[in-house]
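Duplicate of #3305? Posting structure anyway:
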C-alpha cells in the first residue's frame, strides 16, 4: 500500500473549503479520472473512475467527519482499496490549509505501474491544485453538509 500526502493552501475561509469538500458529487469538476460520485446516504458514496482507460467502480464509507476539521473514509467494496483523510486547518480568516493523506493499494498492472512511476502522486497533487482553483474561482461553496459522523457510529 502506498501513502500519498498533498497539502494546498486555498484563499477561502475554513468553513467554505470544508463545505465544498462535502459535496462529493462535484468531485468530477476537479478530480482527474473521476467520472461520477453518487452519494447514497450521509456515510456512503458510489464512485466511478476511469484512469488510463481502465474503468473502476467502488463504494466508500465515511468513518469520521467533524465539520471544519476532517473527513476520513475507506473503501468498502469494488476493485479499489484505499483509505484516507482530508484535514482543514484555519490559517487566518480568509485562508485554509487542506491536507489530503491517502493509502492506496494498486490493484492492476496499470495501477501498479502508475504507483511505481509516481503517477498517482502527481494525479493527487493535480487534483488538489484543481480544487484550489475551483473553490477560489467560485468565490464560495456551492453547498455543504455539516453533520457529524463518528467512528463506529
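Output from current build:
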Amino acid at each position: 500500500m502506498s501513502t500519498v500526502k498533498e497539502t494546498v493552501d486555498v484563499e477561502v475561509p475554513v468553513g467554505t473549503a470544508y463545505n465544498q469538500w462535502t459535496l462529493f458529487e462535484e468531485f468530477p469538476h476537479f478530480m482527474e479520472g473521476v467520472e461520477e460520485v453518487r452519494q447514497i446516504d450521509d456515510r456512503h458514496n458510489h464512485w466511478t473512475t476511469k484512469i488510463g482507460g481502465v474503468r473502476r467502480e467502488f463504494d466508500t464509507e465515511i468513518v469520521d467527519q467533524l465539520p471544519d476539521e476532517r473527513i476520513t473514509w475507506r473503501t468498502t467494496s469494488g476493485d479499489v482499496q484505499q483509505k484516507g483523510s482530508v484535514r482543514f486547518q484555519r490559517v487566518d480568516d480568509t485562508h485554509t490549509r487542506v491536507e489530503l493523506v491517502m493509502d492506496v493499494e494498486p490493484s492492476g498492472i496499470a495501477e501498479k505501474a502508475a504507483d511505481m512511476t509516481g503517477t498517482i502522486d502527481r494525479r493527487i497533487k493535480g487534483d488538489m491544485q484543481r480544487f484550489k482553483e475551483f473553490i477560489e474561482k467560485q468565490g464560495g461553496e456551492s453547498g455543504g453538509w455539516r453533520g457529524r459522523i463518528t467512528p463506529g457510529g
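Confirmed duplicate; merging threads. Residues 2-138 form a domain with the Alpha-D-Glucose-1,6-Bisphosphate; Chain A, domain 4 fold (CATH 3.30.530.20). Residues 67 and 147 are 7 Å apart (CA to CA).
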